[in-house]
Amino acid sequence: MSHELGRLEDLPQDYRDDLKNLNLVPLWPSLRAVLPPGVPTRATQAVHWPYATLKPLLLKAGELTPIEKAERRVLVLANPGHGLENMKASPAIYLGMQLLLPGEWAPSHRHTPNAVRMIVEGEGAYTTVDGEKCPMRRGDLILTPTGLWHEHGHDGSDPVVWLDVLDLPLVYYMEASYHINGSRQTVKQGSGDRAWTRAGVVPTQVFRRSDKRYPMLRYPWSATRAALVEMAANEPQLDCVQVTYVNPETGDDAENILGFYALMLKPGQTLALPARSPAQVFHLIEGAVDVSTCGKRFELVEADTCCAPGYEPVTLSNRSADQPAFVFIADESPLHRKLGVYEVR
Ligand SMILES: [Fe+2]
User: Fold this and answer.
1) What is the pTM of this model?
2) 310 contacts 278 by C-beta, under 8 angstroms
3) Quick one: pLDDT at residue 204?
4) 282 alpha carbon to ligand 1 midpoint, in Å?
5) Cα separation of 338 and 150, whole Å?
6) With a cut of 50, which residues of the chain have pLDDT below it?
7) For residue 166, how far is its CA from the centre of ligand 1 (angstroms)?
8) Residue 111 Cα to ligand 1 middle (Å)
């Protein structure tokens, strides 16, 4: 049972001044704020970023700011609950919509935060990660994990847009965020998504398995979508048709801090997701989906993105009665699990 605790104003001013001068703070006036009863205090708001309203402004940035002046031409999807200037979608998730125009080059760098890119539209761009040239197509997920060199190029004829998902807010909070610029990478032969083509078998060299932490850097949407469709056909009564992006050698989460998933909603399906501790982000790859959380309902169309705070249930509804829908999800699960605070309510 919570009861009222003493307030700062209840203390004599001279006592408060003495504490302040000695860099001391009384806990009890703030105790309920940092340890509220039952449910954490969350600054994260449920927010919807429609692609149709964002895209013209992103294209405008392409006119206003040359790539050399931007390095990465990005509009950040910022959660007003955290203050727009803090560039957070949630405590640990940064979201940015990035534009690369034909012929442009975003030079090689590496940094401590982990990133992934979910390709939103356009053809002909590529990301070179750790010497592996990864083509960027709609729905592909490309990892640029902590410490790996990456750069973006574009040989196509139309603008390419992708959604960056980083754990930047957390790494910045830990005072561990920095980058290093590098020179153009030499492209190596081969790609992880071809070497790790099928679940159940992994490349082996004279009975030795790969010990790469990130064996797969590109997860082609064609393969992920096919897996979901196959799962749904295999088990028609299955409620939740979902896959997790993992390291195919170990089954661990693809990256260390954020988790990534793809989910298929059958025609007309409504799926109630339980309240879980991590905040999460939904990006609609294909179809028409309503996302309901925190008393709000977002009508997502293709390429729309929204977020939900942790500890809140979320309901996903496919608005189409005859077409499936496909959603990309990012959340803070790996972080919560490592910290021992992961909860499903
Ligand atoms: Fe980067």
Assistant:
1) 0.96
2) yes
3) 97
4) 22
5) 27
6) none
7) 9
8) 6
